[in-house]
Structures are given as C-alpha cells and as structure tokens.
Amino acid sequence: MRPFACLIALAALAAAATRIADPEAFVRRVYRSIEARPSEYAPPRDIYTPRIRALMAEDTRRAKGEVGCLDFDVWTNSQDPQGIRDIRISSLPESDPNRRTVAAKFILGEPQEIRFEFRRMGGRWLLDEVICASEPRWTLSELLRCWNQPKPPVR
Predict the structure, then answer these.
(1) Which among 83, 87, 106, 130 is least surrounded, fewest beta carbons within 10 Å?
(2) What are 94-120's pLDDT values in tens digits?
(3) Residue 100: in which H helix or E strand, if any?
(4) Residue 114 phi/psi, 5° resolution?
C-alpha cells in the first residue's frame, strides 16, 4: 500500500505546481502580493526553466547553508521592498510566440525597471531570465554564476 500512497502524494505535488497561463498576469499578481505583504511574500520556486533551476541549485550547493550569489530580491532589486509604489506592469513586443517579456516599473527609493523573460516549454510558461534595466544593470543568470568569477587579489 505504501507505493500507492507515494503515487498519490506525487500526483498531488504535480497538481500543485504553479501554472502560468499568462506571464503578464502572473507578474502582476506577484507585485500585488509584494505590495500587500512586502516582508512576507516569496514567489514560487517552481516557475523557472531548467537552465535557471540548475544555476540556483548550484548556488545553493556551493553556498553550503550561507548566503549565495543572491543577497537581494530580484523582483524588487532590494533587500527590503517596504514602500514599493507606482507599480506598472506591461508586456513588451515579441516576435516568437514561445517567448514573452514582461516589464515591471516601480518606485522603490528611486525608479526601477525589472524585465522578466518567459519561455514556453512543454506547454508551460517558465521564467528564463530576469534583467534589471535600471542602473546598476544585472541579469539573474550572470548573478548566479558568481562562483565562476575570478576573486580579486588579496592585499
């Protein structure tokens, strides 16, 4: 009977996986949640492409329980989203029907713009890249490769 119980649990987990029907609507919901509960909200972790998931897993492994390459929230480009305001979400034009880029513009201390690049894979929309279009510019995939960056010489 135990294997049957495991199958039911796995089926429940698969059914509970985050489904993104519309990337813009998803990003809008995330920012509404951040605005409503700035210190509490954490976006789901099952929304990333295999490429980004692998980078995150490697970062977690190398960090060994400490803070890894990311020491801030990429959704708000901050460590504390308290006071986020004037949030505007829009989709950018795309020529590929399996790609969507959603821009989030908001004020958090100063104007910010974060772009979320989604890819449709296996019939699901997954987040494949996050890009900060404000200064200083960064991309999620590059940040997650901090372990591969040369260390500055010790003086």
Answers:
(1) 83
(2) 999 999 999 999 999 999 999 999 999
(3) strand 99-108
(4) -120, 135
Record the pTM. 0.83
Question: Three-state SS for 44?
Answer: coil
Tokens 């990311």, residue located:
70
Q: How far apart are CA 78 and CA 47, in angstroms?
A: 20
Euclidean distance between CA atoms 12 and 65, whole angstroms: 29
Can you say how many angstroms the Cα of residue 19 is from the centroid of all Cα atoms in its chain? 14
Locate all alpha helices (DSSP H) within the chain, ordered by sequence: 2-16, 23-36, 50-63, 140-143
Angle at the Cα of 83 from the Cα atoms of 78 and 88, rounded to 5 degrees: 85
Please return the burial class of 10, using the count of CB atoms within 10 Å of its CB with bins 0-12, 13-18 and 19+.
Answer: exposed
**Joined tokens for residue 40:** 């509490």
